[in-house]
Structures are given as structure tokens and as C-alpha cells.
Amino acid sequence: MTSTRPMIPIAKPLVSEEEKQAVLEVLDSGQLAQGARTAEFERVFAEYVGTKHAIAVANGTAALIVALQANGVGQGDEVITTPFSFIATATSIIACGATPVFVDVDPFDLNLDPNRIEDAITDRTKAIMPVHLYGHPARIAEIREICNDNGLALIEDAAQAHGAEHAGQRVGSFGTGCFSFYPTKNMTTGEGGMITTNDDDVARLARIIRHHGQEQRYLHEYFGLNWRMTDLAAAIGLVQMRHIEEWNQARIANAETLSSLITQVQTPVVREGDRSVFHQYTIRVEGDRDEFQRRLEGVGVGSAVHYPIPIHRQPIMQQLGFGDAELPVTEAAAAAVLSLPVHPSLSRADLEYIAESVNKLARP
User: Fold this and answer.
1) pLDDT band at 3 (very low <50, low <70, confident <90, very high)
2) CATH 3.90.1150.10-classified regions of the chain
3) pLDDT value, residue 26
4) Ranges of CATH 3.40.640.10 domains, the chain
5) What CATH number is given for 244-362 in this structure?
6) E strand or H helix at 231
7) pTM for the full predicted model
8) What burial class does residue 1 get, using C-beta atoms within 10 Å of its C-beta: 0-12 exposed, 13-18 middle, 19+ buried?
9) Average pLDDT over residues 46-69
10) Phi and psi of 149, rounded to 5°?
11) 213 Cβ contact list (under 8 Å, min separation 6)
């Protein structure tokens, strides 16, 4: 099965004349660094997530580092997290001087499994950091209860989950939320990140830490670096916020269409009462996943593997001594997952072709 049709890309950032005009207005204003547009973006994003505060930063990794520091995570602490994510989930913990403690994932949605967390808690545990993987909410209410029972901070890695909901509540509002605005995310600022919280003290500290640790100019009472967002990025973000729900709904509709048409592989599932925003539409392939991916590419269907090597198996984690764990659910997932296009630019014909191609190539 071969095709001469153009490749259907796995992702396609949506940027229009609105964003271009917004950037030009910032350039004309002369206020390029963090300023009024960043403050307005923070206000709008906090309202969207449903929190008192939003603190804009330079990227999603910065959001994780600043959020951890603002919650008191430091040298000698442990943070329980998932091994099935992008490596920044773990390296942000290490950057704070703390140790990532990996707990296996739930086979249902590949998010951190709450049933395995309590066995990993020690007297050094400071926080739990689940990831809302692929835009699917983790079982965050259960994890919050574990945090409350044990006096632990809850840091939500919501980098892929803008607008996702658990039990009618937006992710990023259960603890301290961390979002990314990388170009392939459900919305973008080019590069950028956001921290969300209802905790006044965490918000205050996050704002200080992102600004070289100073609350008063040239008085540095905390350790911080330059993690600030520019008004150029915030201007793009403000425009994107006008469309995020339209784009999320398109992703959800595209995912529903794919799931109704794909019959030969395991398609993603969403827990009843949850809302996934399908940053990725991820199937699980039996047999040789990598060969299946090559054959999809051959017929013009883009795809990606998120993630082929679990964090605890990454060479740098082995070198640093953080890779000593047996996590069978995670390792099985890493060998089977494959993300298909689900972005808002897909047509009905694209979706039908993707499903048809998957079914033909997966059929015994």
C-alpha cells in the first residue's frame, strides 16, 4: 500500500494574521520584555484554568523548576513522579537539587498510578508530580488526597493538557499547575510556560524566583534566574486564548472520528467524567511498532512515538543513579505507543485516510 498524496503531518501549529499583527504592535510599542501584555495573558489564563494566580515564564521546563522551588523543593528532597513523560519532568526535579522517584503508570491511561504512590513515600518526600499525559487527566483528585494526607506539595505537569478536566475541574487547579506553550502544544506562544495556583505564597515566590530572586530591585533574598516571558510571546498567547476552546473541541471531535473508524489496534480511552483535550491521539500497536510506523510514513501518514525510552532508562538517568527501577507497565507502553495526527487542521478525508491506512497495515 503506497500513496502519492502529501504527507499528513503529526502536528501543525496554528498561527494567523492575528498573531502577526499582535507581535507587530508589541514591536512598535517598544516594550518587548515582560510587561502589560504578559500581565494580561496571566489574567486571562488564570481565569481559563480557574485559579487565583497565573505566573508566566520562558518555557514549560522553567514552569516546572520555578513551581518546584516555590513549593519548597530543594537539596535532599524526593519528588514522586512518572517515568513515562518527556525528560523535563525529571530533570526539573534534579535542577532543584532533589531526587526523582519513579512510580509505574496506570495501564488504562498511562498516567501516574495513585495505587502505587504511597509505597514510594519516605520521610524525604516533598512533593508528587503527576503528568496529564497526551492531554488526558491523571487521577488527580486521588493524588491530591494522598498529598493532603501526607503533607506533600502537588505539582501538576499539565504541559500537554490546556483545558483538560477531571471531575468537572480544569487540570492545573488541583495543585500548582505547569503548562507549556511550545509550538506543537494545543496553543502556543512560540516558546513559553505558565504556572497556575490558588496559593498566594506560592504565587508570590514564583514571581520572585522567575525574576532573579528579587522582590525589590537589586535585593536578592532568594535563588532565582531569569525565567521571564516576553511581551512578544504573551501577545501571541493572548490571541491563541481566543481560539483554544475551538481548537480543543476540534481535537476531541477528530479523536472521536478516528476511534469510530479504527478497528485493528487499541485506541485511546477517556475515563468517564473526564475531558481529554487530545494533545496526542495515541494508539497501541502489537508486534513491531517501529516497522508499522515506517509503513505508515510510506503511505503518507505522519506519526510519532511519545516516548520510546522511559525516563528511568535514559542514559543520563543511569549515569546520575536515578534509573534503578523495574517499571513493567511503563516499559510495555514505551514499546507499543504510536501517536497519530489529531490536530484541528485535519479534514474528514484526512481522518478517513488515516483510519483506513492504520486498519490495512495492522490487519494480520
Assistant:
1) low
2) 244-362
3) 87
4) 17-241
5) 3.90.1150.10
6) helix 231-241
7) 0.96
8) exposed
9) 98
10) -65, -25
11) 220, 221, 222, 223, 224, 225
